[in-house]
Specification:
The protein is α+β, with helices and mostly antiparallel strands. It has 3 domains: 107 residues, Roll (PH-domain like); 77 residues; 72 residues. The protein is built from 6 helices and 10 strands. The strands form 3 sheets. The chain has a 5-stranded antiparallel sheet with strand order 2-3-4-5-6, with no helix packed on it. Helix 1 crosses helix 5 and helix 5 runs antiparallel to helix 6. The longest helix is centred in the N-terminal third of the chain and has 62 residues. The chain is elongated. The two termini are 23 Å apart.
Length: 288
């Protein structure tokens, strides 16, 4: 079940709050909308958790080599080794992220990807620009939610359409499940088209996105939980490496199983705590 908090109405003057998506009103009056659920930036995937994991891995590897070389090289040399390993893997991840992003973006620009997927589009009040494609906004008649399922993969998107009910799809903005309701409402307001509230509520109910449990972990809370997760994984893994290496002189291969078990245990504990925090917040809001 996905929990959401509806925080946008058509007469709101403020921009809506999204979990992953971003809306920016630029100084020239142009509005830029980014769904971010199809982000090609490795560090932004899974709501930024991928970035926390990769960054934490760099720190862990640096500390790992520091601990492993401390006995032989002493504090200063071990610190240099650890710092060098950290900087090497950090630079490697940033380089890899840049290469992958540029490659995928180039391939998308050369094809018709941005004609169908408005992952990052602008609207000047007259036309929508997505990549090298430009669409006359007067063709837009309504926006509706849609979901595409393939195995375990679920893709939510706000479908911008032309014509009568059903109509022809002009483009879609892929969003996180938390953002689908607010994105449909916001785009309907942005393009000045009627919102099918009844249809939207039916869709949310069918997909298990309930309006009764109106709680949504905000961006700042998301960042806090991601940091807690990263610190917990990094801290416990470093402690295990330090203890096992100091007491038993364990080699890298000998540390593999304890580290895998630690990762699984910490992941389950943090997931449980996160779930309980959401449940407590829902209960607190209902009690108001």
């Amino acid at each position: 079940m996905i929990l959401r908090k509806v925080n946008l109405r058509l007469d709101d003057m403020n921009l809506p709050e999204f979990r992953l998506a971003k809306v920016k009103e630029m100084h020239n009056g142009v509005v830029r909308v980014k769904g971010n659920a199809n982000s090609i930036n490795l560090l932004r995937m899974e709501g930024g958790l991928a970035g926390v994991f990769l960054g934490g891995s760099c720190v862990f590897l640096g500390l790992f080599f520091f601990v492993m070389t401390y006995r032989e090289n002493g504090l200063y040399e071990s610190a240099r080794v650890g710092l060098g390993v950290f900087l090497f893997f950090l630079a490697f991840i940033l380089l890899l992220t840049g290469i992958v992003s540029v490659l995928i973006s180039t391939l998308r620009q050369l094809g018709n990807y941005y004609q169908k997927y408005w992952d990052d589009f602008t609207f000047d009040g007259v036309s929508v620009k997505s990549g090298r494609f430009q669409i006359d906004a007067s063709e837009i008649t309504f926006v509706r939610p849609r979901v595409s399922k393939s195995g375990d993969d679920v893709e939510f998107s706000a479908s911008v359409r032309s014509g009568p009910k059903g109509g022809r799809e002009l483009g879609r903005i892929v969003v996180d499940g938390f953002d689908i309701a607010n994105m449909v409402e916001y785009l309907s307001s942005l393009f000045g088209v009627p919102l099918d509230e009844e249809g939207l509520e039916k869709f949310l109910k069918k997909e298990g996105i309930t309006a009764q449990e109106e709680y949504h972990i905000g961006k700042e809370e998301d960042k806090v939980w991601n940091r807690r997760y990263g610190v917990a994984q990094l801290g416990t893994a470093t402690l295990i490496v330090a203890i096992l290496h100091s007491l038993f002189g364990t080699t890298i291969s000998g540390l593999l199983i304890p580290l895998i078990l630690n990762f699984a245990i910490v992941h389950n504990i943090m997931d449980y705590l996160h779930t309980k925090a959401v449940e407590n917040a829902i209960a607190a809001e209902k009690a108001l």
